[in-house]
Amino acid sequence: MAVCGVCIRKPPLFERTVTAFDYTFPWDHAIAAFKFRGELQWSTPLARALAAAVRDEHDTVDLVTAVPLADRRLRERGYNQAWEIARRTAKLLGLPARHDLLHRLRDTPQQMQLNRRQRDANLQGAFMPGEADARRAVQGSCVALVDDVMTTGTTAEEATRALLEAGARAVHLWVLARTERDTAPTDATIG
Question: Who wins on pLDDT, 11 or 32?
Fold first, then answer.
């Protein structure tokens, strides 16, 4: 298991991260088609890729969930791409999956054009644990948190904070693709 330099300097709240591939061609195009153009036929092959990536560690996980979308974005898109991957991956691995473990408290601007500092501020306090039944399910569990793309880890960190608040013993991050660290805009590139 490799530990990145950023994680050595500032350990994240989540225990580990497993990604299926780098956010490069052809995966970046497949994820964009799935996420932004409603091409749901990508959900099964992408879930298979993620299941293959986490196969060696899935037996340490009790429960699978996904990063929730804001209500407005969910209405616009019609589906949560992270949940579509999470539920299919969980099924392939024989794990329970629940979409109600986290709630997004507020609609936040999309992260894509924000620098690290803006991303941190944008998502601070954006997630909260689910209702009482969901909190009982999380209590003492190792939860796999699924997302489609990881850039700075801000979304994962804030969602993990809420899962730990609900009583999760650990959170493992399962992500389809990871961007290179320098792909997030810097302060100099944002007007």
Answer: 32
**Domain membership of residue 159 as a residue range:** 19-189
Q: Is 12 a member of any domain?
A: no
Domain assignment of residue 11, yes or no: no
Is residue 31 classed exposed, middle or buried when 0-12, 13-18 and 19+ CB atoms within 10 A define those classes?
A: buried
Within-domain flag for 9: no
Q: What is the rounded CA–CA span in Å between residue 188 and residue 74?
A: 32
Name every residue whose Cβ is closer than 8 Å to that of residue 28 and which is 6 or more positions away in sequence: 177
Torsion angles phi and psi, residue 20, rounded to 5: -80, -35
**157-168 confidence digits (pLDDT tens):** 999 999 999 999
Q: Where are the beta strands (DSSP E) in the chain?
A: 16-22, 63-66, 102-104, 127-129, 142-150, 170-178
**Structural domain count, the chain:** 1
* CA neighbor of 120 nearest in space, from 71, 161, 177: 161
Q: State the Cα–Cα distance between residues 61 and 150, nearest whole angstrom.
A: 20
Q: How confident is the model at residue 25 (pLDDT cuts 50, 70, 90)?
A: very high
pLDDT of amino acid 183: 45
